[in-house]
Specification:
Layout lengths: L1 H5 L3 E5 L6 H15 L2 E8 L8 H16 L3 E6 L3 H11 L4 E6 L13 H8 L4 E6 L3 H15 L4 H23 L4 H18 L4 H18 L12 H49 L3 H16 L3 E5 L10 E3 L13 H13 L3 E2 L10 E8 L2 E9 L7 H50 L1 H17 L5 H32 L8 E4 H9 L10 E5 L4 E6 L1 H17 L6 E9 L2 E8 L33 H11 L3 E6 L5 E8 L6 E2 L2
Parallel strand pairs: 1-2, 1-4, 2-3, 4-5, 12-14
Antiparallel strand pairs: 6-7, 6-10, 8-9, 9-10, 11-13, 13-18, 14-15, 15-17, 16-17
Helix pairs in contact: 4-5, 7-8, 7-9, 8-9, 8-10, 9-10, 10-11, 10-13, 11-13, 14-15, 15-18, 16-17, 17-18
Length: 660
C-alpha cells in the first residue's frame, strides 16, 4: 500500500449493462473523490455485442453516460477475454485500484471456471481490486436466451446453401469411394463441408445442423449396411462420435473466426472514416465546407440522416440544413419548430439531448453540440429511428464531432488573426495619414498664414512685384490643398465602395485637352507637347475621373522634373485598348522605388510620386480609378532618361475609331 500511495492514484471502474452497475460506478466515483484520484471507466466490447437485447444496450449507454457525468474518462476495448484485457489495461495505464461488480455466480466444483473477479485478481496481483456486490444472474440468463434464439433463427438462403454443400460433400465422397479412397478421407470431406457451411451461413444453427447431417449421411451412404443407419462394426460408434465432435468444434471455431473478422472489418471501417475525416477537414477552406464534410462522414459511418444547425453571424443558432443518407442530395431547410427548440436547448446548455438521453428522451433524433473551449459552433442532430448508437459507434461519432470543432476553431482563429491584421494595417494607414497630413500640410498653411499676415500688417509698404509674388504663393498653396482634399475624398469613396462611375462614350483627345486646362500653372515652365493619332478614339469612361487621373500624372511630371523639361502626352490604339501615355525626360525613378510607386502613402522619401510635399495619394488614386474602368496603369523608363506612365483603357471596337 505504501508503494501505491507514493504515486498518483488512478482508479479503474468496469462498465457493464448490469442494472446494478450504476452502484459500482457511484462507489468508484466516491473513492476517486476521497483519494483525489483519476477515474477511468473501461468497457470491454465482446464479439457477441450485437446479440444483446435492445434494453441491455440502452442500459449500457446510460451507464456510460452516468460514468461521464461522474467525471470518468470512458475507454472502450474490443475483445472476449475480459479479465485479461482489464489487467493489461490496468498495467499500461498505471492503475492503482480496480473497482468491479461481483457476480452471483459461484464455482460449483474445484475444476469449474473461476469468476471474473478471481481472474482479475490472478492476472493483476499488484493492483488493489475492490468488489462491489453486483448480481448479474438475470443478465446472464437473458444473454443465453438471446443467443439460443439467434442460433435457431432459420433463413431460406442459409438452408439452401447448407443443403447444396451437404449434397456436394456426399457426391464427392461417393466419387472417392469409386476410386478406392479410405473412409478417413471421406470423413475429411464432410468436415470440410461443415467448415464451409459455418463460414458462408449467417446463423451458427446451420453449422450444428451440418455436423449432425454429415454424420447421418456418412452412416447412410458409406457404412455397411449402406442405405440404413445400422452398422455391423461397434467401433464405428466411436468414429461417429469423433466425427460429430470434430464437426461441431470445426463449425464453432469457424463461426467464432467469422464473427471476429466481421467485427474487425467494422472497426477498421469506422477507424478509416475517422482518419478520412481528419484528412478532409484539414483541407477544408471554410466553415460551410467543414460542416458539409462532417455531415457526410457521419452519414458514411452511421447511414443515418443528419441535420446541422450552424451558429449564425449574430451568435445565435441558425436554421437547420438536412443531409440525406440516400445519395447525398442537396441540403434543404427544415421547418420543424419542435426539433429547432431542442437544438436551441442543446446549443445553450452545451449538453446532448434526444433519443434515450436524459433530456427530450422521446425525440426521434439525438442532438449533440459542436463545442470547444466553451464556444459552441452549432448543433448536429442524427435521426436514429428509435435505435441508439452502439458504444464504439458513439465513440467514433464523438471523435468526428471533436475533429469538426477543432477545424472550426482553427478557421475562427485564422479569421480573428486576419481581422486583427486588418485592424493593425488600417491603424497604420491612419497613423501614416495623420503623420503625413500634420507634417506636410503645415508648410502650405504656414505659408498662407505668413503671407496673409504680411498683407494685413505691411500692405501699404509692399511694392507691386512683391504683392504679386505673395498672391501667387497663396494661390499655389491653396490649390495644392484643394487637390489634396479632392484626392483624399476620392480615395475614401473608392475604399468604401461609394464611388459611382458615370460612364459615357467620350473622345479621349478631348479629355486630354480639358485636363491640360486644370493642371499646375507652372506648366508654362516646361515644354508640353501632344502626340495624337489621326483617328478619333471613343472610349466608354467616366470622363471626370479619367481627367483627374491625367491631371495627377501631368502635375506629377511638372513637380518632379527640372525647369524646361520636355513633357509629352500621347494617345494611340493598341488592339482593343486605347493607350494614353504621359512621358517626361526628368531624372527618372530609381528601380528600388518602382515596385511601391502605386502604394498609398508611399512618397519615396518625398522625391517622387506626388511631389515634394505629397502624401503618396495621387498615384494610388490613379491606379484605383483606372482599375475601376477595367483598365491598367503602368510605369516604364523613358530612354535615355525620364518616366513614362501608360494608361490602358478598353474600348468598343465597333464605335471606337472615326476617320478624319
Amino acid at each position: 500500500m505504501d508503494k501505491n500511495m507514493e504515486k498518483d492514484e488512478h482508479i479503474l471502474v468496469c462498465i457493464s449493462p448490469s442494472p446494478s452497475n450504476i452502484k459500482v460506478i457511484k462507489a468508484a466515483s466516491k473513492m476517486a473523490e476521497a483519494f483525489h484520484a483519476t477515474l477511468t471507466a473501461l468497457y470491454i466490447k465482446s464479439a457477441n455485442y450485437d446479440s444483446l437485447p435492445e434494453k441491455d444496450k440502452v442500459r449500457l449507454q446510460n451507464n456510460i453516460k452516468y460514468a461521464e457525468e461522474k467525471g470518468a474518462s470512458v475507454t472502450t476495448i474490443i475483445g472476449d477475454d475480459v479479465s485479461l484485457q482489464i489487467a493489461e489495461y490496468a498495467h499500461i495505464s498505471n492503475t492503482t485500484k480496480i473497482v468491479v461488480g461481483r457476480s452471483g455466480a459461484r464455482r460449483r466444483h474445484l475444476w469449474g471456471k473461476m469468476s471474473l473477479t478471481e481472474q482479475i485478481i490472478l492476472n493483476a496481483p499488484d493492483v488493489d481490486v475492490y468488489i462491489i456486490p453486483d448480481s448479474v444472474a438475470d443478465l446472464k440468463q437473458q444473454k443465453e436466451k438471446s443467443h439460443i434464439t439467434d442460433q435457431i433463427r432459420p433463413t431460406l438462403k442459409d438452408a439452401i446453401l447448407t443443403l447444396l454443400l451437404l449434397m456436394a460433400s456426399t457426391g464427392l465422397g461417393l466419387i472417392f469411394t469409386l476410386f478406392g479412397f479410405s473412409e478417413s478421407n471421406i470423413i475429411t470431406v464432410f468436415i470440410l463441408g461443415v467448415l464451409v457451411i459455418s463460414v458462408i451461413t449467417v446463423s451458427p444453427f446451420y453449422s450444428v445442423l451440418g455436423s449432425l447431417a454429415s454424420v447421418l449421411l456418412f452412416n447412410w451412404f458409406f457404412i455397411e449396411p449402406r442405405f440404413s443407419f445400422h452398422t455391423y462394426e461397434t467401433e464405428y460408434v466411436v468414429t461417429f462420435i469423433i466425427m460429430l465432435t470434430s464437426s461441431l468444434i470445426t463449425g464453432s471455431l469457424a463461426n467464432k473466426l467469422k464473427k471476429n473478422a466481421q467485427q474487425s472489418a467494422r472497426e477498421a471501417f469506422r477507424a478509416k472514416v475517422l482518419f478520412d475525416t481528419n484528412q478532409l477537414l484539414q483541407k477544408a477552406d471554410g466553415s460551410e465546407e467543414v460542416i458539409r464534410i462532417t455531415a457526410y462522414q457521419i452519414i458514411t459511418l452511421l447511414d443515418k440522416d443528419v441535420m446541422v444547425y450552424p451558429r449564425d453571424m449574430k451568435g445565435d443558432l441558425g436554421r437547420a440544413a438536412a443531409f440525406n443518407s440516400s445519395n447525398y442530395p442537396d441540403e434543404e431547410e427544415l421547418s420543424d419548430e419542435n426539433e429547432y427548440e431542442i437544438a436551441k436547448w442543446v446549443f445553450k446548455n452545451r449538453q446532448a439531448a434526444g433519443l434515450k438521453l436524459e433530456k427530450y428522451s422521446t425525440a426521434e433524433s439525438q442532438y449533440h453540440a459542436i463545442c470547444l473551449n466553451d464556444y459552441c459552433y452549432g448543433v448536429i442532430a442524427i435521426r436514429l429511428n428509435g435505435i441508439p448508437l452502439e458504444t464504439f459507434e458513439n465513440s467514433v461519432f464523438m471523435s468526428i464531432l471533436g475533429e469538426c470543432a477543432l477545424a472550426l476553431e482553427s478557421l475562427r482563429n485564422a479569421e480573428e488573426k486576419e481581422k486583427a491584421s486588418i485592424m493593425v494595417r488600417n491603424e497604420q494607414l491612419r497613423s501614416n495619414l495623420l503623420r503625413s497630413i500634420s507634417h506636410d500640410i503645415r508648410t502650405p498653411l504656414t505659408s498662407i498664414s505668413g503671407n496673409a499676415s504680411n498683407l494685413l500688417n505691411h500692405f501699404e509698404q509692399l511694392d507691386t512685384e512683391t504683392l504679386k509674388q505673395i498672391f501667387s504663393d497663396i494661390y499655389d498653396d491653396s490649390e495644392w490643398l484643394v487637390d489634396l482634399v479632392e484626392n483624399l475624398l476620392s480615395i475614401s469613396r473608392i475604399e468604401n465602395g461609394q464611388m459611382e462611375l458615370h460612364m459615357s462614350m467620350d473622345v479621349i483627345n478631348d479629355v486630354i485637352e480639358e485636363a491640360l486646362k486644370h493642371v499646375d500653372r507652372n506648366i508654362c515652365q516646361h515644354h508640353v507637347s501632344l502626340q495624337n493619332s489621326d483617328d478619333i478614339f471613343l472610349v466608354n469612361i467616366d470622363s471626370r475621373l479619367i481627367m483627374q487621373v491625367l491631371i495627377n500624372l501631368i502635375n506629377n511630371a511638372i513637380k518632379n522634373t527640372q525647369t524646361g523639361s520636355e513633357i509629352m502626352i500621347r494617345s494611340e490604339q493598341r488592339g482593343s485598348t486605347a493607350v494614353v501615355s504621359v512621358i517626361d525626360n526628368g531624372p527618372g525613378i530609381p528601380d528600388s522605388i518602382k515596385p511601391h510607386i502605386f502604394e498609398m502613402f508611399y512618397t519615396g522619401q518625398s522625391k517622387v510620386a506626388d511631389g515634394r510635399r505629397g502624401l503618396g495619394l495621387g498615384l494610388a488614386l490613379c491606379k484605383s480609378i483606372v482599375e475601376a474602368h477595367s483598365g491598367k496603369i503602368s510605369l516604364k523608363d523613358n530612354v535615355p532618361t525620364g518616366c513614362c506612365f501608360e494608361i490602358e483603357l478598353p474600348m468598343d471596337i465597333g464605335a471606337a475609331k472615326i476617320d478624319i
